[in-house]
Design brief:
With 176 residues, the chain is mainly α. It has helices spanning 3-55, 60-92, 96-129, 134-139, 143-147, 149-153, 156-162, 165-174.
């Protein structure tokens, strides 16, 4: 076991712990609320802008961002309340421990995904800057498997993970 493995294990254990504390329902609800909050905030900020403009005197320069933020917050808070209600129902029917255990798995998976993204980035930059030595990568039990998670989920990442940092920076600048 190398220092890379320890650096990977610590966030995974933290994810297990946080997932257990929050439970699956709250974990999933927070992910859904973030995605829906952004989506609904973008799609319905015009409606919120119109309502704000009718009821308040706001500078039009800030109206768009204010309406997006308000819409986003309403969606996130609404989903959070629904999740809390579902969690209470689950706890009432003595399924709370399953919620906690599945929450642990979800938390570890979430942190595993984040670690994998970071490893893909480090690996692509590593070709130029030698952040992690090849011998340390070979000694690590978890480096290889964790590096493969994101490319397995998002196939387009495979090519990014194999490119050198200069190529990655050039690709990112082309997108602007």
């Amino acid at each position: 076991m190398s220092y890379i493995d320890i650096a990977i294990i610590i966030p995974l254990i933290w994810g297990l712990y946080r997932g257990f504390i929050k439970g699956l329902i709250i974990q999933v609800a927070s992910l859904i609320s973030l995605i829906l909050g952004i989506y609904i905030g973008v799609k319905f900020s015009d409606v919120a802008s119109a309502l704000l403009q009718e009821n308040f005197t706001l500078d039009k320069q800030y109206l768009g961002i204010i309406s997006f933020v308000i819409t986003f917050i309403v969606v996130v808070v609404g989903i959070h309340f629904i999740a809390k209600l579902l969690e209470k129902i689950v706890n009432m029917v003595a399924m709370g421990i399953f919620n906690k255990l599945l929450g642990s798995l979800m938390g570890a998976a979430k942190y595993g995904l984040i670690i994998s993204v970071l490893l893909v980035i480090v690996n692509s930059i590593d070709a130029s800057f030698n952040i992690v030595s090849e011998s340390e990568k070979r000694k690590s039990v978890l480096y290889g498997p964790m590096l493969k998670i994101v490319p397995a989920i998002i196939p387009g990442i495979k090519s990014l993970a194999k490119k050198e940092s200069g190529e990655v920076l050039a690709l990112l600048q082309e997108d602007k």
